[in-house]
Design brief:
This protein is α/β, with parallel strands linked by helices and about 260 residues long. It has a single domain (about 1-260), classed as Alpha/Beta hydrolase fold, catalytic domain (Rossmann fold). Helices cover about 35% and strands about 15% of the residues. The protein is built from nine helices and eight strands. The chain has an eight-stranded mixed beta sheet, with helices on both faces. α1 runs parallel beside α9 (about 245-260) and α2 crosses α3. The protein is globular and about 45 Å long. The chain starts with a strand and ends with a helix. The mean pLDDT is about 100. InterPro entries: AB_hydrolase_1, AB_hydrolase_fold, AB_hydrolase_sf.
Amino acid sequence: MKFVTSDRITLDYTDEGIGQPIVILTGFGGSKEIWHGQVSVLVTAGYRVVNIDSRCHGLSERTGKGLRMSRRAMDAYELIQQLKLKQPILLGNSMGAATWFAYVSLFGDQSIKAVIDVDQTPKMINTTDWPYGFKDVTWSDFPDYFYNPLGPSTHKHIDDTTYKLVKRVAKQSPFDEKATLPLLVDHAFQDWRDVVAGLTIPFLIIAGENSPYFDSAFAAVTARTAIKGQSVVVPEAGHIVMAEQSQAFNQALLRFLATLE
């Protein structure tokens, strides 16, 4: 399905199932197909799943406009308003989760049922008061570090079906990392800790124990700052937890969703 944003960029998304809406966003360079192992499970469990390719990602339009976290959040907000989704659950991996933090910073959490963060620290730059950033990156490395390859994101192979779907989309609509670097730099610059601390709704972090990007201890530390925060660390999983350990991820996700009913 297609949706045109207020600044005239066309986004691609899927909308499946009925019931409580869950809106999904993927991280930098990813496409919505990475969630293949979750969508059918959630639809079967009685949820309506809206899965979005952000601008410049997946099958959505390539553009030099709006390459910042606030615009990504606005895009999602406009689609949620267009679809008239009531009290959606917001689910995101990596930059997708950070986009939901931007969303809450702009619009509050009164119209949201819950937020689920998959392996994304609220602060990417390591400082003396926050040693849970991206790898060992500090302000002395910023922004230059992010102009270079970030290295592998996974600990183990993602499942074969998901891999084929992701590769098919990548071939059909290649991701232009160089052109999209301003977005990555804006992402790395942000500090969402105050947003997490201000959440009044249920908040879950699912981290990969073997994430190449983050110390999984960030999950418990971050969750404790939220009023209704909790965390799960999935063993033998890297940054793309949902596609590396789909069964364990889905179990943790469904357990949390059951507490919201």
